[in-house]
Specification:
The chain is built from 1 helix and 10 strands; from the N terminus they run αββββββββββ. With about 190 residues, the chain is an alpha+beta fold. It folds into 2 domains: about 55 residues; about 130 residues, no CATH class.
Length: about 190
């Protein structure tokens, strides 16, 4: 390959060529090794995350529901830390008239937000709206935690949370295992 070059140049180009040839496989081997290490790390993280959550007592209970007769569906989520409610999220969607958009209600409250006041009363977490639409009426959510998580929305005002034509359910119960919510509509 380098026969037409002087001897010194042949030797130098040969060293460069073969050194480059020898280096390429070792770079690939290093990259493959790095990828293997990253894959092992990712698998380890995936395996340990649930254990880390269990060790810190964190748990998220969630469920979905659909009531076809009333054309309503939704989802409820409650984040717990050592059995204490830290966050509550409820999304409810009501179908609209044919060809029209639907209506929704949404609750998204956590202990550190400024829109709600959290308190505990006889084992029940009370979440009061800090600025209710109608201050003369109660505007609060009651959350009980046990085998099931119960979200009582009977005293929650829909104004400010729901679009016109939508309303919050009276109550939602999240089962301990992943399953459909039990929902009581008004």
């Amino acid at each position: 390959m380098f026969d037409s070059l002087p001897d010194g140049n042949q030797r130098i180009l040969g060293q460069i060529f073969f050194a480059e040839y020898d280096r390429v496989p070792s770079e690939y081997a290093r990259r493959e090794g790095a990828v293997k290490h990253l894959m092992h790390l990712a698998i380890l993280l995936i395996i340990t995350i649930p254990f880390a959550q269990a060790a810190t007592g964190q748990e998220i209970r969630t469920c979905k529901f659909e009531v076809k007769a009333r054309c309503v569906s939704g989802e409820a989520r409650v984040a717990l830390a050592n059995g204490v409610v830290k966050r509550v999220e409820v999304d409810v969607f009501w179908c609209g008239l044919p060809g029209k958009p639907g209506y929704s209600c949404s609750i998204n409250s956590s202990r550190d937000d400024r829109d709600s006041v959290w308190s505990e009363e006889e084992g029940v977490t009370l979440i009061a709206n800090a600025s209710p639409f109608n201050p003369a009426q109660p505007d609060r959510i009651k959350v009980s935690v046990g085998q099931f998580v119960s979200i009582d929305l009977d005293e929650a005002q829909p104004v400010g949370r729901c679009g016109a034509g939508a309303e919050l359910p009276r109550a939602i119960v999240i089962p301990s295992q992943r399953a459909a919510c039990r929902v009581w509509l008004k």
